[in-house]
């Protein structure tokens, strides 16, 4: 998904300019007549579209939170070693890598709705493979970037951040019921949001920007009218969408190698760099193997994972409120600092354990560090990079760029999720100090390279960055 996901761009698709002419159009779209009522409020159709998209992210959250509560049961029932369970725990990210290779092209060919439906069927098959498994089976393919193409600019960040909230809700659900439910029926629950989305995609409109890209003029107006409301004049916004799409279709062909033109270098560095840094900051290792971390620290695994589940929901909700008020850059830097503190505190606790210090102090510090990290991640690091990714790439490379960014995200996540158990056995304190050092780099990266996109139209953002 995430990230879906990601991925994860129907709520915010964009078209920047790459020359002065297109840049002038971006200025028009950013202000003046294009910032009319048609881009100022969220309609029921936008809310419904976001809900359907969020069902997918909820399902991803269930998958994201499945491996931690299921770890002991699966290892016991299937007789798995730590190394073998590390492979199972990282299967989600392996599926993400595979999905990233084709998701962008699929989205360009069959549209955003069709892509959701197509990949969600694979998610259902993956869950069912686990439900009926007698051996370790399951491949996860997730495509996101859907929720950024259809929302108005002043609520775009909040709506897109809502995907992360539902992801956290899915994760929290697994952490809650996973404490008392066997891993087979636990997997069956994961199919429910997938089924809801498979049905729901038939009741939401396609992205007007994708329709314009395909030359479906009448469908552009119809889709945009549904999204903005029957009484809203969408003529200017529809004209802007067609104008930008036509400009970029003329300026460049949609080929994967087009991504590596100099004019897209900034966007690619921001996209790939930010996703990789966040993943190497340790989120998958901590979420996937939280039970093991608390157990080694001497903390109750049920209390620890339940607290993680509880804390992530309100902080994810807070990110929705702050995304379009505080801004993307400040939110990233503040939450990265929080993740640094949580990782460093956990590393310090395990260092004290290595020095045979009081066990109760170690347990409290690990518990506090993990909770702080989870809160910080949920409040900004989880959703903000995906919001930015959905805003900085122009329409002519969006599909290919989405695949590349998703590939970088899931490949980094796979490295962390697979290597975590080995690193944790090597040095329980050292692995968290590594995470802390990477989290420390995120604010520097953001300050130097990441643009602020709050309150700006997609065309304006892309015209400035390219």
From TrEMBL:
GO MF terms, alphabetically ordered: sugar transmembrane transporter activity
Domain Major facilitator superfamily (MFS) profile: residue ranges: 42-454
Any one of the GO CC terms: membrane
Keyword Oxidoreductase included in the entry's annotation: no
Transmembrane segments: 42-64, 85-104, 124-146, 158-177, 183-204, 264-282, 302-323, 330-352, 364-389, 401-424, 430-450
InterPro entries in alphabetical order: MFS_dom, MFS_ERD6/Tret1-like, MFS_sugar_transport-like, MFS_trans_sf, MFS_Trehalose_Transporter, Sugar_transporter_CS
Domain of life: Eukaryota
Pfam family, any one: Sugar_tr
Subcellular location: Membrane
Topology in membrane: Multi-pass membrane protein
Keywords annotated in UniProt: Membrane, Sugar transport, Transmembrane, Transmembrane helix, Transport
Family of this protein: Belongs to the major facilitator superfamily. Sugar transporter (TC 2.A.1.1) family. Belongs to the major facilitator superfamily. Phosphate:H(+) symporter (TC 2.A.1.9) family.
Protein name (Swiss-Prot/TrEMBL): Major facilitator superfamily (MFS) profile domain-containing protein
Native source species: Nyssa sinensis
């Amino acid at each position: 998904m995430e990230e879906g996901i990601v991925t994860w761009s129907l709520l915010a698709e964009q078209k920047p300019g790459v020359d002065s002419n297109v840049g002038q159009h971006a200025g028009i779209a950013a202000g003046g007549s294009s910032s009319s009522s048609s881009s100022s409020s969220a309609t029921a159709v936008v809310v419904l579209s976001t809900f359907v998209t969020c069902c997918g992210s909820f399902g991803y959250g269930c998958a994201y939170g499945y491996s931690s509560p299921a770890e002991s049961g699966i290892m016991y029932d299937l007789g798995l070693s730590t190394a073998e369970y590390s492979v199972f725990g990282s299967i989600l990210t392996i599926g993400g890598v595979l999905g990233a290779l084709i998701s962008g092209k699929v989205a360009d060919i069959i549209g955003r709705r069709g892509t959701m439906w197509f990949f969600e069927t694979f998610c259902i098959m993956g869950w069912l493979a686990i439900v009926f498994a007698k051996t370790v089976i399951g491949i996860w393919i997730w495509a996101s970037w859907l929720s950024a193409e259809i929302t108005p600019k002043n609520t775009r960040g909040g709506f897109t951040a809502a995907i992360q909230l539902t992801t956290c809700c899915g994760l929290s659900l697994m952490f809650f019921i996973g404490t008392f439910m066997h891993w087979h029926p636990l997997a069956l629950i994961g199919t429910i949001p997938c089924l809801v989305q498979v049905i729901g995609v038939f009741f939401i409109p396609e992205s007007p920007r994708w329709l314009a890209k395909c030359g479906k003029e009448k469908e552009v107006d119809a889709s945009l009218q549904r999204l903005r409301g029957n009484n809203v004049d969408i003529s200017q916004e529809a004209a802007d969408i067609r104008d930008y799409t036509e400009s970029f279709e003329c300026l460049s062909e949609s080929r994967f190698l087009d991504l590596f033109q100099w004019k897209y270098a900034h966007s690619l560095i921001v996209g790939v760099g930010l996703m990789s840094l966040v993943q190497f900051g340790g989120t998958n290792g901590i979420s996937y193997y939280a039970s093991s971390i608390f157990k080694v620290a001497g903390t109750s695994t049920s209390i620890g994972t339940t607290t993680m589940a509880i804390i992530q929901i309100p902080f994810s909700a807070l990110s929705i409120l702050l995304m379009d008020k505080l801004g993307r850059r400040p939110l990233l830097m503040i939450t990265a600092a929080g993740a640094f503190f949580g990782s460093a505190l956990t590393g310090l606790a395990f260092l004290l354990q290595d020095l045979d210090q009081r066990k109760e102090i170690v347990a409290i510090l690990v518990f506090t560090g993990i909770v702080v990290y989870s809160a910080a991640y949920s409040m900004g690091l989880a959703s903000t990079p995906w919001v930015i990714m959905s805003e900085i790439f122009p329409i002519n490379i969006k599909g290919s760029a989405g695949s590349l960014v998703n590939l970088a995200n899931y490949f980094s996540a796979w490295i962390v999720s697979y290597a975590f158990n080995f690193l944790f056995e090597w040095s329980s304190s050292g692995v968290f100090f590594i995470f802390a050092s990477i989290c420390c780099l995120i604010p520097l990266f953001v300050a130097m390279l990441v643009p602020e996109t709050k309150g700006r139209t997609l065309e304006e953002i892309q015209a400035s960055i390219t």
